[in-house]
Design a protein that fits this description.
alpha/beta; Rossmann fold; five-stranded parallel beta sheet; 5 helices; 5 strands
Length: 147
């Protein structure tokens, strides 16, 4: 289990694909406040994110939600998204692109590849924590996933 993973929970995990240590810390703190959120697993690059997908094929529980950055070392977020959305089983996992980019081209590319939501990371600490909390509330309280 990844050292950045919170304690075990009955809820399915969340996969955070992010290389910025500050953003990892803030996101994990925000989800730690959400009683409906499961443990946060962290992939610090795209290749590790794809390794997680292979582990789900081997029986590890898939995440209830993936938070995916675009700019990652090695395999970028678009390629991770492309491969995930091509998978016959895992393509239904909701993916939120959480990026510092507000470029129209990035939004168009993400949505054309099947992202479920695109959020530009707030720069301000409090707004970042608030935005992450809202992501959790939406996907774990309001959204109705298929069974």
């Amino acid at each position: 289990m990844n050292p950045a993973t919170r304690q075990p929970s009955a809820a399915p995990p969340i996969l955070l694909v992010e290389d910025n240590p500050v953003d990892i810390d803030l996101t994990c703190r925000a989800f730690a406040r959400d009683p409906l959120a499961g443990p946060v697993h962290v992939a610090r690059d795209g290749e590790t994110a794809l390794d997680f997908m292979h582990s789900w094929d081997q029986g590890e529980p898939p995440p209830a939600l993936i938070l995916l950055d675009i700019n990652l070392p090695g395999v970028n977020g678009f390629e991770v998204l492309r491969q995930l959305k091509r998978h016959p089983v895992h393509r239904s996992i909701p993916v939120v692109m959480l990026s510092s980019s507000a470029e129209q081209r990035d939004l168009l590319d993400a949505y054309s590849l099947g992202v479920n939501s695109f959020i530009v990371k707030p720069v301000d600490f409090d707004r970042f924590v608030e935005a992450t909390g809202q992501i959790g509330r939406y996907w774990f309280e309001l959204n109705q996933p298929p069974i």
